[in-house]
Amino acid sequence: MAEILGICGSARKKGNTAALLKEVLKSTGMESELIFLSDLDIGFCSGCRICMKNRGKCAKDDDMKGLIDKILSSKAIVLGTPNFYYDVSGLMKNMIDRTVSTSYLGIGEYTGAEWHGWRPLVEKTGGIVITQAAFGGEKAEDTFNCFAEYSGLNLAGTVIASFGSQTVNEFPEYVDEAVELGKKIKKRIKGN
Ligand SMILES: Cc1cc2nc3c(=O)[nH]c(=O)nc-3n(C[C@H](O)[C@H](O)[C@H](O)COP(=O)(O)O)c2cc1C
Question: Is the pLDDT of residue 10 over 70?
Fold first, then answer.
């Protein structure tokens, strides 16, 4: 499985989020894979709590199982989303919600709270890409920060890029930021 996993919360495969994610992945120089959540069948978390009682096994049998395997076996995950109404996209939020089962796998660091379980991503590096027309991305960043705090993911950095109605081609400075984020992620992993 890939060392660096990019997860795209935009369904536009040639959109700005995908373009910046590709730059981050490429600049790590490591083996990577970019996944589009829109290609996967991931149902909503129903809050049934079966994962809490069943050592992290989710009641739903869908593509989240394979995605969790990829997340857990990667060295870093890079999460990218368009800002939709001042927050992450529904695709991304749904994926975040469904990672809750990993808190009960018994891996990572125990939180001391039975309801919270473990922080499974304490050994993992993370990166964030948020694209938008103009404003509101800070709240999407908050959502990712909460996910990182909850899961233990160690964030190396966040890129928030405002494109108006244009594309990455008109904004080389955001490509530079994405490249820098990729280099930071590599440094965190390899230590040089
Ligand atoms: C449903 C929806 C809500 C949006 N809400 C915002 C917003 O609150 N603030 C903003 O600056 N852009 C907003 N946008 C614009 C997108 O964030 C922006 O076009 C983004 O770069 C699209 O990413 P993509 O090219 O990867 O699809 C919204 C777009 C859609 C479709």
Answer: yes
